[in-house]
Specification:
By secondary structure, this protein is an alpha/beta fold. It folds into two domains: 247 residues, Rossmann fold; 149 residues, NAD(P)-binding Rossmann-like Domain (Rossmann fold), CATH 3.40.50. It has 15 helices and 18 strands. It has a six-stranded mixed sheet, with helices on both faces. Strands 15-14-13-16-17-18 form a six-stranded parallel sheet, sandwiched between helices. A four-stranded antiparallel sheet has the order 2-1-4-5, with helices on one face. Strand 1 and strand 2 form a beta hairpin. Helix 13 packs parallel to helix 14. The termini are far apart.
């Protein structure tokens, strides 16, 4: 039985203490999430668990063995690591990258079994069709899944992941989290992952470790860790924490700072926001806080943006979970858009399920509405529609849409249009 014991661990970067008295245990098959603000020590903890960083005080044991004395090959056989960013300096084919995960097991040349394991890992994260493509010719989300496949090809007992869903659209986020949950339940794989999305963490993890300033501030089951008090004290953000009436899982909704009475409209300008997958939270809070009349749509009812809109009292067109936008909801969305002065498009991934939102923005532009698009690099928009979303965004831009490089700039633009 694989068990991890972390006892009184302290780690330093030069004279700066990065981890302070970290103690907890992880049983075989557990899915443990690590949450905390930037700089709280989450990535450092993963580095310590993987043996890359040696504690100055305390120890990390895997099945009673101190990771600091295990060889790299032995560690690689037991622990797979998916870092937050993975730089690959040479133009390898995707299959070759995944086969790198077999390195601890290969003595000279890869065997038929190694190839089978590599393809199985690629199939698990749905990148097998990219096997012969060069790693430099895949998207950021595809690269993320390829690196996860490489770690799975190691056939580890423990998988450490630093923000495994970063760069992925909502569909692929759910696919990866479902895969990790299945690996825990069916194969007894132990998963420890740094996560930034509370709702994903609450949905898939057995337990959570909340960190701040290098220390553990809360640990245990999700409902014990993800409390309004813990989150506000650690992140400085007020949250509504509820349990979904259908699924039974916790879900969290961020609130405006203050007493909650800031959302009364004071401006004449009406804004319609197209968002999803958490891309609209900041924009909604700022626009409502500034007194703009706001509508939002179309959003999936389990999307965190939907929960934010409802918490702020914003009118929203909603759609059933994991469903494409129906014609009825599309028409309702168009009505909201035609009643608005500005249509604001968040920096969000587009797939076939939400493509009609972009089509609605195009209709709005034809009707003379002002369009503002949040896009740091419009040419790199996250398009999962085979180029259809990108083509619409390019048309919007060519026909006079205003491009904001980030969310703060978008808010400034909207405020300037109100004058």
């Amino acid at each position: 039985m694989v068990k991890i014991i972390i006892k009184n661990v302290e780690c330093y970067y030069n004279s700066i203490k990065a981890l302070d008295s970290i103690t907890f245990e992880v049983d075989e098959g557990d899915f443990v999430g690590i949450v905390g603000p930037n700089g709280s020590g989450k990535t450092t903890l993963l580095r310590c668990l993987s043996g890359i960083l040696k504690p100055k005080v305390g120890y990390v044991l895997i099945d009673g063995e101190d990771v600091s004395i295990l060889s790299r090959r032995e560690m690689a056989k037991r622990v797979g690591v998916v870092p937050q960013e993975s730089y690959i300096g040479f133009n390898f084919k995707v299959l070759d990258v995944v086969l790198m995960g077999r390195h601890p097991h290969i003595r000279r040349f890869e065997s038929k079994r190694d190839l089978e394991i590599a393809f199985r890992a690629m199939e698990a994260v749905k990148v097998q069709h990219l096997a012969d493509r060069f790693i430099t010719n895949v998207s950021g989300g595809e690269r993320r899944r390829i690196i996860i496949a490489r770690a799975l090809a190691q056939e580890p007992e423990i998988l450490l992941l630093d923000e495994p869903t970063v760069h992925l659209d909502i569909n692929h986020q759910i696919e990866i989290m479902e895969l990790l949950r299945k690996l825990c339940d069916k194969q007894g794989l132990t998963v420890i992952a740094v996560l930034h999305d509370f709702n994903l963490a609450a949905r898939y993890c057995d337990s959570l470790v909340m960190m701040n300033r290098g220390r553990i501030v809360a640990i245990g089951p999700c409902e014990k860790v993800l409390t309004s008090q813990n989150i506000e004290e650690t992140f400085g953000v007020k949250m509504i924490v509820n349990r979904h009436p259908v699924t039974g899982f916790l879900y969290l909704v961020p609130l405006l700072r203050g007493d909650g009475n800031e959302n009364k409209p004071t401006k004449k300008l009406k804004v319609h926001l197209i968002c999803g997958g958490g891309s609209g939270g900041y924009l909604m809070r700022e626009l409502v806080g500034e007194g703009f009349r706001l509508t939002v749509g179309v959003l999936n009812v389990i999307d965190s943006d939907y929960e934010t809109a409802k918490a702020l009292g914003v009118s929203v067109v909603c759609e059933a979970p994991f469903s494409p936008i129906t014609d009825e909801n599309h028409q309702e969305n168009l009505k909201m858009i035609m009643a608005a002065d500005i249509v604001l498009v968040a920096d969000m991934p587009f797939g076939y399920m939400n493509l009609k939102n972009l089509e609605a923005a195009l209709e709005a532009q034809k009707a003379g509405k002002r369009i503002v698009i949040v896009a740091d690099q419009p040419s790199r928009i996250r398009d999962y529609t085979g180029g259809k979303a990108k083509a619409i965004l390019e048309r919007l831009k060519e026909q006079g849409a205003i491009i904001a490089k980030n969310e703060k700039e978008a808010i400034k633009i909207v405020k300037s249009l109100e004058k």
